[in-house]
Amino acid sequence: MESRNVLLIFNQHIMYKPIIYRIAKDFNVIFNVLEAKILPKQEGRLILQLSGEKQDLDACITYLKDEEVVVDILADKIQRDEDRCVHCGACTAVCRTDALVINRETMMVEFHPDRCVACGLCKLACPVKAMSGISIDVDSEELNMVV
After folding, report:
1. Which of 113, 122, 123, 146 has the smallest set of CB atoms within 10 Å of its CB?
2. pLDDT by residue (tens digit) across 23-36?
3. Residue-range domains of the chain with CATH
């Protein structure tokens, strides 16, 4: 089983279709809503963690795109510069998904991009600017150009 964090953008003409219901019902994919921003009669944005077998996840993502949902995989949006990182742990205090955690045995900060939802809080917290990339909250204008 694998999981992917995805940003889904629903425009107004598909916003009220039962698309999310079909994910669970038809694709054998478990989803967890990590964040939701709904502007009634305008646009809906969901960050979901999708879990399941690779072929089921691929079929689910294909279905979403066929339904005109904009799908953006979030794992590669934020990167860490290993040479800059001093492992101070400031980023771990703000990371709400445990994508950045301190390994208590080595006291080094570990980065798990597959858990990242690209919120950008780590970029703001890092005193040496070791975290970079496009974040959905901090760099929303840049993300809109990418999506």
Report:
1. 146
2. 888 998 999 998 88
3. 2-73 (3.30.70.260), 78-140 (3.30.70.20)
